[in-house]
Amino acid sequence: MADPVALVRDASLTERAVLGIRDQVLRGKLRAGERLTELGLVDLLGVSRTPVRAALQKLAEEGLLEPTQSNGYLVRNFSEAEIFDAIEVRGTLEGLAARIAAERGVPQPILEQLRHCLAGIDAVLAGARPGDGHLVRYSELNSRFHALLLEASGSTMVARALARVVSLPFAAPDAFVSAQAKIPESLQILKTAQLQHHEILGALEARSSARVEPLVREHARIARKNLELALRNSDALEQVVGAPLIRRRGRS
Amino acid sequence: MADPVALVRDASLTERAVLGIRDQVLRGKLRAGERLTELGLVDLLGVSRTPVRAALQKLAEEGLLEPTQSNGYLVRNFSEAEIFDAIEVRGTLEGLAARIAAERGVPQPILEQLRHCLAGIDAVLAGARPGDGHLVRYSELNSRFHALLLEASGSTMVARALARVVSLPFAAPDAFVSAQAKIPESLQILKTAQLQHHEILGALEARSSARVEPLVREHARIARKNLELALRNSDALEQVVGAPLIRRRGRS
DNA sequence: CACCTCTGCGTTGTATACATCTTTGCCCAT
DNA sequence: ATGGGCAAAGATGTATACAACGCAGAGGTG
After folding, report:
1. Which of A142, B13, B14, B184 has the smallest number of Cβ neighbours within 10 A?
2. In chain B, what residues touch A157 (CB-CB under 8 Å)?
3. Which sequence spans correspond to the domains of chain A?
4. Site from A66, A83, A157, A209 to mutate, B interface, most B CB atoms within 10 angstroms
5. For residue range A45-96, what is the model confidence (pLDDT) as tens digits?
6. Which of these CATH numbers, 1.10.10.10, 1.20.120.530, 1.10.8.60, 1.10.490.10, describes B79-247?
7. Residue of higher predicted confidence among B249 and B82
8. H-state helical runs in chain A
9. Closest CA to B177 of B135, B137, B219
10. Cα B25–B172–A106 angle (5° rounding)?
11. Residue-level pLDDT at B9
């Protein structure tokens, strides 16, 4: 497979460094707990220390790296419990976004897009056959639905907080969708999630803030369930981006 | 008044740059909307571009500065609505922390510290006289209570999300406490807040997750009320750290 | 007069030299 | 054998030179 980072042509060296380091970390090439030195990354990436330093600072903010007491960086790892909590934080913030959206009213164009998005997912699920690309299309539309939900709130502050959580590899709405390819009950899970999407949209249309918030929170917990399934199925876990960062119970 | 930043002796130049820029932004010396150039800050702070660049990156992450399309930075400003939302986000995340704490159980030592903290606030409020330093002591203990609440959850992920929100100048639990010096009904507000503190602690002790979450959320809304009061009282507003960053309705 | 271009200046991007701090591992003393 | 200290290697912190980019203003042209 070609190195995806080298393909980024029109990017600053700092961006290249960010993408390169993030990529190697998520692939487990740079292993959890490993110390990252600027000079080592200079050799690895072929750029000088200046962009490497900027990239390290950014990735530490993002949460992938952990600053040490002596001004170095370690590749961070995540316990199951931390991933669970991250998903719960996402659900809570998405719930807040939905509540605000319901209270303040969602602009018609965004409601339209939400409806259109769900119609798209309905179509994908109706035609889904094992092995075809329906997971990819589901994942895209699912991400879009969640993005629209945030947009519906119109709140830059909620967006800011949510962006930070979702930057973690396991907290995004579609983090475990790719793992579904290896999970037998996959289609049923996706259909359940889509039912929840419809309920959420219905509550938004009815401007029922009291109903939409717990619906959205519960919806996020599907990701927790998917995490549990993936952790018990190594084929599925391999599909999850960033799986090498998960610190398993009792191991190492 | 002496420049507080120059007093920081044992700090790297990067830290000095962060503190210096943040200080000048919050004081309104660098005005909202103003473009910050690296060379300008080099002159202002007396350090070279390298630490200035690092500081700009950090402060942009923090939310005080806004990256422009052409790789520059602007001093950010905040609408009333944004500050309201930021406080709501804080309340929501603190509510999540409290719910998790109630569900998982709070360690006895932390419960002890919470009780001790509230006893301290009770004492401060009982002896409060206008003009004495009770606001400073209240503010410290109040911050400590909120920090303990977060610690009680034991969740690094909630802590991470909350840290990000609270880094904004107006979202911290004690952001508007200093303004109270100029607000007549101040003592009554603080007493109400302390009543809520007691209710929250009671709910935690009873491990009532369903009760503690809305209590904490509502508690945060006192800050929203304080913001409203401060915005209508320019003497009070002057006391608020970062007041120059508030974009008033209809102005400028 | 409007518009386009080209030039010059101001700003950020990058590499690198040098300073300083941290760590490591060896050697010596006990 | 163990502990402490010191020296050397390696790491990050900082300054700065140079490159590249972008914007504004002057001047030319339709």
Report:
1. B184
2. 82, 85-86, 88-89, 165
3. 13-76, 79-247
4. A157
5. 999 999 999 999 999 999 999 999 999 999 999 999 999 999 999 999 999 9
6. 1.20.120.530
7. B82
8. 13-26, 38-45, 49-62, 80-104, 108-126, 134-153, 156-166, 186-205, 209-231, 234-239
9. B135
10. 95
11. 65
Provide the 10 A C-beta neighbour count for residue A17. Answer: 29
Cα–Cα distance for residue pair A64/A59, rounded to 1 Å: 6
CB B95 within 8 A of CB B213: yes
Q: Which option is the CATH number for A13-76: 3.40.50.1000, 1.10.10.10, 2.70.70.10, 3.30.70.1060?
A: 1.10.10.10
Mean residue pLDDT across chain A: 93
The residue type at A137: R
- Calculate the CA B224 to chain-centre distance: 12
Query: Which nt has its C1' nearest the CA of B68?
Result: C12
Chain A contact present for B166, CB below 8 A: no
Of B249, B75, B233, B92, the closest CA to residue B169 belongs to: B75
Give the whole-angstrom CA distance, residue A89 versus residue A92.
5
**Is B155 near chain A, with CB under 8 Å?**
yes
Could you identify the residue written with the tokens 């960033």? Answer: A242
Please list every residue in chain A whose beta carbon sits closer than 8 Å to the beta carbon of residue B165: 157, 160-161
- Give the pairing type, strands B73-75 and B35-36: antiparallel
Q: For residues B128 and B145, give the distance between their C-alpha atoms in angstroms, rounded to a whole number.
A: 19
